[in-house]
């Protein structure tokens, strides 16, 4: 039996400011660090200690990971970072205030951009795309790998190769795997794990700093799920 722990990072500065974050690299708030510390304590109380942590290349997840491992006194545990675990790319909405965006485009349109499974927000500019391509984290990727915008469906397509080549083999070795990532990259995994229909995943929420623990069988099928 394998154990998979999914953890969304603590509150970020853009979460606090009600902004679309996506691939924008922002820090945690003081509350976010507290949420990460609480997550570590919950895992410790449950007797769950990861053998390896997989996270994104964005610092709100990296700092959450560091805090959790410090609380668990397991800062020596291997941590691997992948762009495939990044948050959904919000395209031209990135950095915009959600309330102000709703005033500009209408709340119904913004709801579609935010919550629909396969409708992408407006694309980011060519300049912003080139800026991402020049970032040291992404400069070795193909241009087609760095998105202009994404729907949740696109995030699932991005995450699945990493699931199949990295996460599944670790689980088959019966390691305790902690995936410290973002709301949408984790929602993509949950959709896959629980076979959630497209029209139902749009209403599925993952709270900041709240560990979700799956026990999986030898075929990586869900045996049980616990939210700490």
TrEMBL record:
PROSITE patterns: PG_MUTASE. InterPro entries: His_Pase_superF_clade-1, His_PPase_superfam, PG/BPGM_mutase_AS, Phosphogly_mut1. It catalyses: (2R)-2-phosphoglycerate = (2R)-3-phosphoglycerate. GO terms for biological process: gluconeogenesis; glycolytic process. The record marks 182 as: Transition state stabilizer. Keywords: Gluconeogenesis, Glycolysis, Isomerase. Pfam families: His_Phos_1 (PF00300). GO terms for molecular function: phosphoglycerate mutase activity. Substrate binds at residues 8-15, 21-22, 60, 87-90, 98, 114-115, 183-184. The active site is at residues 9, 87. SUPFAM superfamilies: Phosphoglycerate mutase-like (SSF53254). Its EC number is 5.4.2.11. Pathway: Carbohydrate degradation; glycolysis; pyruvate from D-glyceraldehyde 3-phosphate: step 3/5. Belongs to the phosphoglycerate mutase family. BPG-dependent PGAM subfamily. Catalyzes the interconversion of 2-phosphoglycerate and 3-phosphoglycerate. PANTHER family: PHOSPHOGLYCERATE MUTASE. NCBIfam families: pgm_1, PRK14115.1. This is 2,3-bisphosphoglycerate-dependent phosphoglycerate mutase. It comes from Ferrimicrobium acidiphilum DSM 19497. The lineage of its organism: Bacteria, Bacillati, Actinomycetota, Acidimicrobiia, Acidimicrobiales.
């Amino acid at each position: 039996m394998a154990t998979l722990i999914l953890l969304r990072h603590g509150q970020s500065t853009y979460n606090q400011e009600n902004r679309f974050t996506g691939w924008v690299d922002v820090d945690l708030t003081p509350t976010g660090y507290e949420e990460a510390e609480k997550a570590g304590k919950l895992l410790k109380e449950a007797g769950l200690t990861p053998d390896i942590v997989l996270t994104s290349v964005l610092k709100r997840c990296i700092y959450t990971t560091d805090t959790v491992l410090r609380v668990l006194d397991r800062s020596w545990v291997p941590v691997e970072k992948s762009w495939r675990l990044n948050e959904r790319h919000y395209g031209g909405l990135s950095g915009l205030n959600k309330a102000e965006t709703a005033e500009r485009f209408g709340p119904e349109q913004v709801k579609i951009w935010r919550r629909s499974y396969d409708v992408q927000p407006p694309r980011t500019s060519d300049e912003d795309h080139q800026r991402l391509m020049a970032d040291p984290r992404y400069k070795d990727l193909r241009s087609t790998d760095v998105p202009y915008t994404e729907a949740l469906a696109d995030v699932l397509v991005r995450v699945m190769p990493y699931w199949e080549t990295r996460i599944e083999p670790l689980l088959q070795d019966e390691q305790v795997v902690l995936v410290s990532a973002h709301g949408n990259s984790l929602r993509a995994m949950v959709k896959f794990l629980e076979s959630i229909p497209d029209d139902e995943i749009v209403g599925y929420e993952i709270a900041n700093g709240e560990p979700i623990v799956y026990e999986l069988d030898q075929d990586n099928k869900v045996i049980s799920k616990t939210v700490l």
